[in-house]
Amino acid sequence: MAERKVRVRFAPSPTGALHIGGVRTALYNYLFARQHGGDLIFRIEDTDSNRFVPGAEEYILESFKWLGIHFDEGVSFGGEHGPYRQSERREIYKKYVQILLENGKAYIAFDTPEELDAKRAEIANFQYDASTRGMMRNSLTMPKEEVDALIAEGKQYVVRFKIEPNEDVRVNDLIRGEVIINSSILDDKVLYKSADELPTYHLANIVDDHLMEVSHVIRGEEWLPSAPLHVLLYRAFGWEDTMPEFAHLPLLLKPEGNGKLSKRDGDRLGFPVFPLEWHDPKSGDVSSGYRESGYLPEAVINFLALLGWNPGNDQEVMSMDELIKLFDLHRCSKSGAKFDYKKGIWFNHQYIQQKPNEEIAELFLPMLKEHGVDVPFEKVVTVVGMMKDRVSFVKELWDVCSFFFVAPAEYDEKTAKKRWKEDSAKCMTELAEVIAGIEDFSIEGQEKVVMDWIAEKGYHTGNIMNAFRLTLVGEGKGPHMFDISWVLGKEETVARMKRAVEVLK
């Protein structure tokens, strides 16, 4: 196993939007593959045609493209182990169903749904297994001629896996250690249905993983109860020596209370549970996405990586390269991870601070255009540099810095009542003249002249600066005053001051 190339897969079903829990599973597979110089395979598990949703596959691919999770082979990526869509592998599965039947590891069952319901009513906690299969209609209880005749007639049947009772099945899990389950509690799972000539998930999963040379299966905790069955299937095929190693990841839990994270939790508390906005083609419902809600993909990746895994140090903000370097399955938690969506907002704030001002300015430009603002890009970059530490999302920038681009149309009543004194109009008129005469309009140049003027006049600094802020901003917010006036420029600063004096006097 040590010399075997690492090959992992992410295999979603195209049944709707990709849940954020699925994104985390794909991320952990990606980090593991990259760390070990391995391959990440994208497989589509679409054997259940009744649940197929148009557009779901494209949505999943677009989500990973946005997040920066790259696949090495698979659906839409190509590769030497295709086809990678299960519905295109029917003949492959039939071959392996036949191998199990011929080796006595599986059998054909003709029981109708009505017959199975009757048996469930007759036997409490009925399970199709070694204790009950002898009383059912299958190839173990019927003559071969009758079985062949029914198949020839086109009677529908299923193929069930024959599980031998009373055997301890050992699953070595990279996160949970050795898990032992007695085979007597397992039922003879259906592996294939003649009705649609398709395998069930269990058979397709094992055959595909084997043929695609998957070395490690990293998947959600909900698949742990199926792991003993999968181990037994590998054995039945004689593939135990190349069986992948298993790692079952902890569940993502509700932010509050108990249970698995659901879309309802997001709707109730106001956070997305999908990477991109999803328009359900059947119901018409629209579900919010991280991208459309204003999250940066790097922030989502960093946030998700730490839900159920820790790097073994106090570091929280990590790039994808750092995550790849530090990732270790043995540091994954065995217990579920509370989905702290507020931490996701914190991460977004951190990444906005880290990104170059030019990059955030580019993201801010469409919002400025929406408000009819057309200014030199350099000005946008400057304003972003001053104000981005005050926001968690780029879309919040307009609310905190619109005054840099649009003069106040009105003045906040509460602020004016508190900050506009009896002599404010007189003082602001004087200050406007002082500012108009400043030759060095740099931040430092302005500050020296204005502070000297305040001292010379014996004015109260706080009263002057608060009134000054009101004239330029329209309320009591914003950065350092001379930062604001420097960005606005001398002419705009003086014009705003004069207008405010006229309105507020």
Automatic annotation (TrEMBL):
An annotated Gene Ontology molecular function: ATP binding
Catalysed reactions, semicolon-separated: tRNA(Glu) + L-glutamate + ATP = L-glutamyl-tRNA(Glu) + AMP + diphosphate
This enzyme's EC code(s): 6.1.1.17
Protein's UniProt keywords contain Lipid metabolism: no
Motif ('HIGH' region): 12-22
Pfam families referenced in this protein's UniProt entry, alphabetically: Anticodon_2 (PF19269), tRNA-synt_1c (PF00749)
Domain Aminoacyl-tRNA synthetase class I anticodon-binding: 360-500
Domain Glutamyl/glutaminyl-tRNA synthetase class Ib catalytic span(s) in chain numbering: 5-343
Main enzyme class: ligase
Domain of life: Bacteria
GO terms of biological process kind: glutamyl-tRNA aminoacylation
A GO CC term assigned to this protein in UniProt: cytosol
Keyword tags: Aminoacyl-tRNA synthetase, ATP-binding, Cytoplasm, Ligase, Nucleotide-binding, Protein biosynthesis
Compartment(s): Cytoplasm
UniProt keyword ATP-binding, yes or no: yes
Entry binding sites for ATP: 263
Family to which the UniProt record says this protein belongs: Belongs to the class-I aminoacyl-tRNA synthetase family. Glutamate--tRNA ligase type 1 subfamily.
Function recorded in the entry: Catalyzes the attachment of glutamate to tRNA(Glu) in a two-step reaction: glutamate is first activated by ATP to form Glu-AMP and then transferred to the acceptor end of tRNA(Glu).
Oligomeric form and interacting partners: Monomer.
Protein name: Glutamate--tRNA ligase
Highest classification ranks of the organism: Bacteria, Pseudomonadati, Bacteroidota, Bacteroidia, Bacteroidales
